[in-house]
Design brief:
Elements: E1 11-15, E2 26-31, H1 35-49, E3 52-57, H2 60-69, E4 78-83, H3 84-92, H4 112-118, E5 122-135, H5 136-142, E6 163-166, H6 172-185, H7 187-198, E7 201-205, H8 209-215, E8 221-225, H9 226-234, E9 239-242, E10 250-257, H10 264-274, H11 277-280, H12 282-287, E11 292-293, H13 317-320, H14 323-338
Parallel strand pairs: 2-3, 2-4, 6-7, 6-8
Antiparallel strand pairs: 1-3, 4-10, 5-8, 5-9, 5-10, 5-11
Helix pairs in contact: 2-3, 6-7, 7-14
């Protein structure tokens, strides 16, 4: 369909504007990006617009579960970040407020058809590319000379107890990985692969922790979005990002207003701002987080993956973004892989 060629769990943090005496309203952001990015985005928005903003940081899957649980009495106003598919699932369930931001007009043209169909409820704030990370020192310790080049390399017995992937029950990254395999190999072969991979898995990690675990040598290989591996490398960790040979999968960062938002005006203001070039450069300029901006006027970091050099699959967001399909595949993974 498109782009073919192209824990802080539950912590509540509040920011008060430093130079202004009274905030103009409030805002509660449910945030599913890295903690430091949540913190920085909230702080800058608060100071720029004189809004008393706070955020709750959770993984994508956990945030969706939280919004479901609060549907009769919403506590959040806007959901920022996390993989796109759970945002679409939230829309399917009637959990989102319709708002098509005028800033969608500045989104890269490759995403126009997706926004035409789904942009009434969800906007797109960034792009992230799925891949593998390896700990180069761990490979030396294990005496393994070659890094994996393809997804199928990870089922080699030499990687027994040395692979981690995010748990798809709570992690949007984990679900994106399963959806990617189904699209690359077909569902039957994808689940045969996941069963074989299970023999090498040491831990189905909570969202985001797989990169930290890799950096400290708890695993030799992990599955994740590659911008996170680049950040770990800059911190000095012996980490290398790898794009698998079968083709490059990706996801997009969603931004959605929660139905029943108590601070609707500020939720719309935050969405408009988060879609701006200024806001989309904040993660890499301020926090060295290298997701790819989707605003046509935003500058990407030199450390970000270059979409022009990627061989991206035709990710079917309609199918894999449906609540029914998400539940079905996650349950199938649990029943046929995790609990076997």
């Amino acid at each position: 369909m498109l782009l073919k060629t192209l824990i802080f769990s539950g912590l509540l943090v509040m920011f008060m504007p430093v130079h202004q005496a009274k905030a103009e309203g409030q805002l509660t952001i449910y945030c599913s990006v890295q903690y430091r990015v949540c913190e920085r985005m909230t702080q800058i928005f608060s100071e720029k617009y004189n809004v008393d903003a706070k955020f709750v940081r959770n993984s994508t899957g956990s945030t969706l579960s939280k919004i479901k649980a609060e549907r009769t009495k919403p506590q959040g106003d806007i959901w920022y970040g996390g993989t796109l598919e759970p945002h679409f699932q939230a829309a399917d369930l009637g959990l989102l407020y319709p708002y098509r931001s005028p800033k969608q007009a500045e989104t890269i043209p490759q995403l126009k058809s997706l926004l035409d169909k789904h942009g009434e409820y969800t906007s797109i704030g960034y792009m992230i590319v799925l891949g593998m990370g390896v700990n180069t020192e761990k490979f030396k310790q294990l005496g393994i000379k070659e890094y994996p080049k393809c997804w199928k390399d990870l089922i080699d017995p030499k990687f027994k107890d040395q692979v981690q992937m995010p748990d798809p029950r709570s992690s949007g990254t984990g679900y994106t990985f399963i959806a990617t395999l189904v699209q690359l190999f077909g569902e039957d072969e994808a689940f045969r692969y996941l069963k074989a991979l299970h023999k090498n898995i040491s831990n189905y990690a909570q969202s985001g922790t797989e990169k930290t675990n890799l950096s400290r040598g708890d695993a030799a290989v992990t599955v994740g979005f590659i911008h996170g591996y680049e950040t770990e490398k800059e911190k000095g960790a012996p980490v290398k990002a790898i794009l698998p040979c079968e083709g490059d999968s990706y996801s997009l960062g969603g931004i959605s207003i929660i139905k029943g938002a108590r601070n609707l005006k500020n939720a719309k203001l935050f969405m408009d701002w988060a879609l701006s070039a200024e806001a989309q450069e904040i993660p890499w300029r301020k926090e060295k987080m290298y997701q790819i901006p989707t605003n046509i006027y935003a500058e990407a970091s030199p450390n970000s993956a270059d979409p022009k050099k990627l061989h991206l699959i035709n990710f079917d967001f309609d199918r894999f973004g449906s609540d029914e399909e998400g539940k079905r595949l996650t349950k199938k993974w649990l029943d046929e892989v995790k609990l076997k």
